[in-house]
Specification:
422 residues, UDP-n-acetylglucosamine1-carboxyvinyl-transferase, Chain, four-stranded mixed β-sheet, cytoplasm
């Protein structure tokens, strides 16, 4: 099993290209099910989760071809011959549940295993089910599978989500494109990945308004056609690499970065003493003079502070001047990186969904274990600012969400390498 070895080092300098968004691409790929014509995605990230979604779509009868070293995904669902999303694939990744809405809309029936993914808390399907039932689907849970059917087809409806769930918004949005009549989703998620999905669906012929706001209106159409769509920049990879010079010093330019994707995050960096400036090619980030300052953070749905950047920011607060309080409002059980950071000398107290971090002057390298995707990269960042050597094990989590991280960080001067069976 691979590990990542990191050694603390000085200032970073150079450019890091930011990949297409994992969470957007994993939503866009199931959209191919909605049409018999080809859907091609450019700027796709090269990640293990993309391979998992490819296997899932292929198991349903879709054709998926990876081109240009994985940066292009060419798909066609003209010959779907299976309506069962099997547990063996779905358990690896929660985004697998996003085939449910498209299959119901196109085929009128679907059997989908309850999803898996990182162990950062429950990922209930209740809002997905609520929305699809509003559209006329009949859904029951049997033996760990959702058995869904729409014998009379899906029909437009008005609904209000009790929580602005990204996954539920995406599933309902895709299903609604082929429903008869008008669908209104209130308290819809506003994430950039939702806007990216809507842009792709519009390119396929869907009629959608209001994406990016809390109310999305979809006028159903009889069919969707093929399209080519460029995947939006990954705001979580962007935010993660924005932190690299915050840990090590120096200046890094993030190619393809956009301020509108990380505005709330950049505001917290500014308070911590990190400069973020827009350039023609992306965003340039540099640490101001002196030690990073402690900043309080509460995770919220977009446009608030992203839960997927909480672990990385906590690692930075471990070496900040002062005490910071981080509140996790999106997922329970998402402080599993805290004990590993404590092994490196951090001072952290966790009480339920709140973590209090007392900054120390220096972390020390240690053997640590990745517990989930974002926790794994937080330990790598911490290791880049620690004395000595840090060995991060169980980095298969990392490969689900970060494309060639050793190459990208090494390219700006980080001392990082991947080793096997260490």
């Amino acid at each position: 099993m691979d590990s990542i070895v990191v050694r603390g080092n000085g200032p970073l300098s150079g450019q890091i290209p930011i990949a297409g968004a994992k969470n957007a691409c994993l939503t866009l790929m199931p959209a191919t099910i909605l049409s018999e014509e080809p859907l091609t995605l450019t700027n796709a990230p090269r990640l293990s989760d993309i391979k998992t979604m490819t296997l899932l779509l292929q198991s349903l009868g879709a054709e998926v071809t990876s081109l240009q070293d994985g940066k292009v995904q060419a798909m066609s669902s003209h010959n779907l011959d299976n309506h069962v999303a099997d547990y063996d694939i779905v358990r690896k990744m929660r985004a697998s549940n996003l085939v449910l809405g498209p299959m119901l809309a196109r085929l009128g029936h679907a059997v989908v295993s309850l999803p898996g993914g990182c162990a950062i808390g429950a990922r209930p399907m209740d809002l997905h089910i609520y929305g699809l039932e509003k559209l006329g689907a009949e859904i029951e849970l049997r033996d760990g599978y959702l058995h869904a059917k729409a014998p009379n087809g899906l029909k437009g409806a008005e609904m209000e989500l009790s929580f602005a769930s990204v996954g539920a918004t995406e599933n309902i949005l895709m299903a609604s494109t082929l429903a008869k009549g008008t669908t209104v989703i209130r308290n819809a998620a506003r994430e950039p990945e939702i806007v990216d999905l809507a842009d792709c669906l519009r390119a396929m012929g869907a009629q959608i308004e209001g994406d990016g706001s809390s109310e999305i209106v979809i006028q159903g159409v009889d069919r969707l056609h093929g399209a080519t769509h460029q995947v939006v920049t990954d705001r979580i990879e962007l935010g993660t690499f924005m932190l690299a010079p915050a840990f090590c010093g120096g200046e890094v330019e993030l190619l393809g970065g956009r301020m509108d994707l990380v505005q709330s995050f950049a505001e917290k960096l500014d308070l911590a003493g990190i400069d973020v400036a827009e350039t023609k090619a992306g965003l340039k980030v540099a640490r101001k003079n002196g030690r990073v300052k402690a900043v309080d953070v509460t995770t919220e749905p977009f446009p608030g502070f992203p839960t997927d950047l909480q672990a990385q920011f906590m690692a930075l607060m471990c070496i900040a001047e002062g005490t910071s309080v981080l509140e996790e409002k999106i997922f329970e059980n998402r402080f599993m990186h805290a004990p590993e950071l404590i092994r490196m000398g951090a001072s952290i107290e966790v009480h339920g969904g709140t973590a209090t971090v007392h900054g120390v002057e220096k972390l020390k390298g240690a053997q640590v274990m990745a517990t989930d995707l974002r926790a794994s990269v937080s330990l790598i960042l911490a290791g880049m600012a620690a004395e000595g050597e840090t060995v991060v094990s169980r980095v298969y989590h990392l490969d689900r969400g970060y494309e060639r991280i050793e190459e990208k960080l090494g390219g700006v001067g980080a001392h990082i390498e991947r080793v096997s069976d260490r």
